[in-house]
Amino acid sequence: MNFVEMLHAAERRHQSLLCVGLDPDPARFPHPWRNDPARIYDFCAAIVDATADLALAFKPQIAYFAAHRAEDQLEHLLAHIRVAAPHVPIILDAKRGDIGSTAEQYAREAFERYGADAVTLSPFMGFDSIQPYLQYPGKGVFLLCRTSNPGGDDLQNQRLASVPGQPLLYEHIARLAQGPWNLSGQLGLVVGATYPQEIERVRALAPTLPLLIPGVGAQGGDANATVRAGWRGSAQQTEALIAVNSSRAILYASAGADFAQAARREAERTRALLQAARPLGAPA
Ligand SMILES: O=C(O)c1cc(=O)[nH]c(=O)n1[C@@H]1O[C@H](COP(=O)(O)O)[C@@H](O)[C@H]1O
């Protein structure tokens, strides 16, 4: 199964559009694990176990591991997800972007070392910085398009005077990803839940691509508006998926010993909000 097929299968199996983000911050762990980076694996594995049947995808954020010299724990975590949640694809949030020869090493890290099913990338350095990842058949590649942060405007909302139609930069990225760059059907786009109008625009420009949409939960994005803007489906089938990510709101729903149960409750709540927002006539 390729990444997109895995995503569709997980969506059907778990009736979920929720991507559970794994951004482990030891300073927010419950006692007695607080401030102990050696517990990153234990914390994340408990979250995975508590949400395995609720998630459309898991998204570990690599910086939260690397900053604590915990890459070995990340490897171990991906191996655990394969066993505990074998139907749930893993998006490694790395946001890489570099010249081809270096990108080859990053691609190897994501797909061979960690065994991720998909990766997030910055498209800033152009198509040759994306190509090495496309050499891995069946793997998914999400390109940053219209990010959830306020500073996303600085570049992404600039107009490109030299491109026919003078699109905004994020619109141009969406068109490239839907069209000429998507040689092997592996591309998807990242669009922030904090900007539903832009999600709608990206969806219009990229009708068949999976969208990774972070920004509900801690960043305050509206789950209902997000789904209505980005979800494409009919009564018969889902045409193009969205994976709506929430990290901190789930991970730190409780600071106590009940953190995993609280994470499950918050994941259930978010999943239900996303399901309820699907347009009428769409598959339940
Ligand atoms: O690529 C991402 O995942 C991403 C893109 C974006 O535009 N905004 C964004 O917040 N993210 C990531 O999504 C997660 C959001 O976390 P919460 O705000 O805690 O739900 C973090 O891991 C971010 O790095």
Automatic annotation (TrEMBL):
It is an enzyme of class 4 (lyase). The keyword rRNA processing does not apply. SUPFAM superfamilies: Ribulose-phoshate binding barrel. One of its GO terms (biological process) is 'de novo' UMP biosynthetic process. Keywords: Decarboxylase, Lyase, Pyrimidine biosynthesis. InterPro entries: Aldolase_TIM, OMPdecase_AS, OMPdecase_type-2, OMPdeCOase_dom, RibuloseP-bd_barrel. Residues 17-263 form the Orotidine 5'-phosphate decarboxylase domain. Its EC number is 4.1.1.23. The keyword Lyase applies. The active site is at K95 (proton donor). Pathway: Pyrimidine metabolism; UMP biosynthesis via de novo pathway; UMP from orotate: step 2/2. GO terms for molecular function: orotidine-5'-phosphate decarboxylase activity. Signal peptide: none annotated. It catalyses: orotidine 5'-phosphate + H(+) = UMP + CO2. PROSITE patterns: OMPDECASE (PS00156). Belongs to the OMP decarboxylase family. Type 2 subfamily. NCBIfam families: pyrF_sub2. This is Orotidine 5'-phosphate decarboxylase. It comes from Serpentinimonas raichei.
